[in-house]
Amino acid sequence: MAAALPRSCVEPGSDVGLPGFGSDGVRLRCQAGIGQYESRERVFVSQSEERQNLLEQRYGQANVPAGLIWNERIQGLLEHRSVRAFLPDPLPAGSLETMVAAAQSASTSSGLNQWSVVAVTDPQVKAKAAALTVSETFGIGSTFIEQAPAFLLWVADLSRSHSIATEAGTGTEVVDYLDSFLMASIDAAVAAQNAVVAAEALGLGVVYIGAARNKADEMAQLLELPPHSFVAFGMVVGSPDPAQPTQIRPRPPQALVLHHDRYSAQQSMDNVEAYEPVLRDFLESSGSTVRTWREMVAFSTSSMDYMDGRQNLRETLHSRGFQLR
Ligand SMILES: Cc1cc2nc3c(=O)[nH]c(=O)nc-3n(C[C@H](O)[C@H](O)[C@H](O)COP(=O)(O)O)c2cc1C
C-alpha cells in the first residue's frame, strides 16, 4: 500500500497544483500516485533566486530595482497577471463574498462608500453584457467574458448619496460637481483592486474590462442602474485555464514612474528606452503582435479607434444625472 503523501507535499506553499514554491525556498515536486516520501524530488531554489526571477519577469533583467522588502503579500502583488482564458467552473462558494469583503475593506473617500458592484453570472445577462464590450472598430469581442463564470461590473455610484440627501431634504448640489464623479470613480477602483488581490490570493484569475464603458448607456440600462451611477469598468473572474497560462507583463523601470520630491519629466522620458527591449521580449515570447511601447502609447493617445465608443461617455453621464460642473 502506498504511504500517505508527506505533509509538506500537501500543505499550502508546496507546489502541488500551484505555480509557486515552498516558502522555505525548497521546491517540492510531489509525485502523487506513487505517494512514497522518498519519491519526491527536491529542487533547491533559494528564496533570493526565486525573488530575482520574479523581479526579472516584472522589470526585465537590466531594470530590476534593488532593496525590495519581501513577504508573502508583497510576492502575491508582484505575481499579478491578467487572465483571459478561463475554465467554465462556477466561482468557488464564498469567493465572491470574500472578494467583496476585501473590496469593502479598502479605503473609501469620507467613508461614503460611493461604489457598487453588479455580479453577473446569469449566462444570458452575461452574454448581453459581453456583447456591449465588443469593439465596433476592430469587430472583436472578449470571448472569455462568456467563458468565465462571473463578470463583475463596478459602479461609480452617487445614487445612494443622492437619495439619502433628497430624503433628508438637504439638497444635492455637491453631486453635480466633477469632483464627486471622480470621488466615486476612485472609490470604485480602489475597492475593485482589493477584490483583485483577494481573488488572486484564492487562486482565481481576473482581468479588468474598460471596454465595459464602450456602450455605457446600454450597459447602465442592462443592469437597471439608477440615475447618478454608471459602470466605471468591468472585471472578469474565474479559474484560470491551465492549458493557456499567462505570463507576467513587464513594467517600465521604476524611474519612469517614481519621482522624489519633485516631478522630473526628463528622468521619466529618459527611461522609456530601457523599457522597449523588455516589452519586445515579452510580446515575442507571448506570441503577441510586436510593437514598441511608444507606438502603443501614440496609438492610444491619437486614435479615435482606440476610444471605441467611450468618446460618448460625457453625454451618457449627463443623461444619467452627472452634471460634471
Ligand atoms: C482600468 C483597466 C481597464 C482594462 N480594460 C481591459 C479590457 O477592456 N480588455 C482587456 O483585455 N484588458 C483590459 N485591462 C487589462 C490591461 O490590459 C492589463 O492590466 C495590462 O495590459 C497589464 O497587464 P497585466 O494586468 O497582466 O499586468 C484593463 C486594465 C485596467 C486597469
From TrEMBL:
GO terms for molecular function: oxidoreductase activity. It comes from Kineosporia babensis. Keywords: Flavoprotein, FMN, Oxidoreductase. It comes from the Bacteria. Pfam families: Nitroreductase. Residues 79-238 form the Nitroreductase domain. InterPro entries: Flavin_OxRdtase_Frp (IPR016446), Nitroreductase (IPR029479), Nitroreductase-like (IPR000415). The keyword Zinc-finger does not apply. Belongs to the flavin oxidoreductase frp family. Signal peptide: none annotated. This is Nitroreductase family protein.
